[in-house]
Amino acid sequence: QVQLVESGGGLVQPGGSLRLSCALSGSILFVYTMGWYRQAPGKQRELVAAITNGGTRDYADSVKGRFTISRDNAKNTVYLQMNSLEPDDTAVYYCNARKEPYYNYWGQGTQVTVSS
After folding, report:
1. Cis-peptide into 41, omega within 30 deg
2. Would you list the DSSP string of the chain?
3. 37-81, pLDDT tens digit by residue?
4. Which of 4, 40, 58, 97 is the 20 to 30 Å CA partner of 108?
């Protein structure tokens, strides 16, 4: 079975940094477009960043210049480096793996809280 497991969330002060990791098992990461989504209380889930198997990256306007998505296919892992964190970044962050037309997998999420 394909599984995604996120790690690296936690509590940080404004201006701080975190690196989230998402490990895929049961398949090969190279096959998928990988994405990070987040959902804050009272808000809809939104795309934060995505990277295709060809290496093309897309970011939400709110995180451009602060967040970087990367993938290590040899380790079957995708990362989200988050710098200059702001209180509005507080959310549960979810990892997603997608391969059209049949496959769309989600992790269970990791909490990121930005507060002084």
Report:
1. no
2. --EEEEE--EEE-TT--EEEEEEEESS-GGGSEEEEEEE-TTS--EEEEEE-TT--EEE-TTTTTTEEEEEEGGGTEEEEEE-S--GGG-EEEEEEEEETTTEEEE---EEEEE--
3. 999 999 999 999 999 999 999 999 999 999 999 999 999 999 999
4. 58
CA distances from 115 to 13, 26, 37, 56, 68 (A): 5, 36, 20, 32, 21
For residue 15, give Cα distances in angstroms to 12, 85, 88, 92, 103: 8, 5, 12, 18, 36
Q: How far is CA 62 from the centre of its chain?
A: 14
Q: What is the pLDDT of residues 19-40, one digit of tens each?
A: 999 999 999 989 999 999 999 9
Residues 88 and 98: their CA atoms lie apart, in Å, by 27
Nearest CA among 51, 59, 55 for reference residue 89: 59
Q: 52 is written with which tokens?
A: 């295709």
